[in-house]
């Protein structure tokens, strides 16, 4: 059974940091490009960041460039998102996504989605 499981969300004050984790099981993690998306209440799901299978290529949404960093460890089947200088507008449910093709995961076309983890940034 294929599973994407996120963790690391929580409540943080504005200006603070959080790190989200996502573990893929049931598939060969190193074959997949990975991405993070977020969805605030009443809003559409937005692209946050993506990383190629090798980790050599990373992409970010305009709202998070310079503040968030996506990384992966293929030996641990894990991708994480380091979020710095958090703002109240970063409050959302964050989802992990996987697709063999990087260009697809960047556009929100995922073969697998995680269940989401809540991030709340207080002002």
Can you give keywords for this protein?
123 residues; single chain; 4-stranded antiparallel β-sheet; 11 strands; 50% strand; mainly beta; 1 helix; globular; 4% helix; 7-stranded mixed β-sheet
Describe this structure as you would to a colleague.
- The protein has 123 residues and is mainly β.
- The protein is built from one helix and eleven strands; from the N terminus they run E-E-E-E-E-E-E-E-E-H-E-E.
- It has one helix spanning 102-106; strands at residues 3-7, 10-13, 18-25, 33-39, 45-51, 58-60, 68-73, 78-83, 92-99, 112-113, 117-122.
- The strands form two sheets. Strands 2, 4, 5, 6, 9, 10 and 11 form a seven-stranded mixed β-sheet that branches.
- Strand 4 and strand 5 form a beta hairpin.
- The chain is globular, with a radius of gyration of 13 Å.
Fraction of residues in H or I helices: under 10%
Structural class: mainly beta
Q: Globular, elongated, flat, extended or rod-shaped: what is the shape?
A: globular
Count, helices: 1
Mean pLDDT: 96
Assembly state here?
Answer: single chain
Report the count of strand segments. Answer: 11
Order of helices and strands: EEEEEEEEEHEE
User: Compute the gyration radius: what is it?
Assistant: 13 Å
Outline the biggest β-sheet. Answer: 7 strands, mixed
Short structural description:
This protein is mainly beta.
Describe the protein's topology:
Layout: E1 3-7, E2 10-13, E3 18-25, E4 33-39, E5 45-51, E6 58-60, E7 68-73, E8 78-83, E9 92-99, H1 102-106, E10 112-113, E11 117-122
Parallel strand pairs: 2-11
Antiparallel strand pairs: 1-3, 3-8, 4-5, 4-9, 5-6, 7-8, 9-10, 9-11
């Amino acid at each position: 059974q294929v599973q994407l499981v996120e963790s690391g969300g929580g409540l943080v004050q504005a200006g603070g940091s959080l790190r989200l984790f996502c573990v893929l099981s049931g598939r060969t993690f190193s074959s997949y490009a990975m991405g993070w998306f977020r969805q605030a209440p009443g809003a559409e799901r937005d692209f946050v960041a993506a990383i190629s299978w090798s980790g050599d290529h990373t992409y970010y949404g305009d709202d998070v460039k310079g503040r968030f960093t996506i990384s992966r460890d293929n030996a641990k089947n894990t991708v994480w998102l380091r979020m710095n200088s958090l703002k109240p507008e970063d409050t959302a449910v964050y989802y992990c996504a996987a697709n063999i093709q990087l260009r697809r995961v960047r556009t929100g076309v995922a073969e697998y989605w995680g269940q989401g983890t809540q991030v709340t940034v207080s002002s």
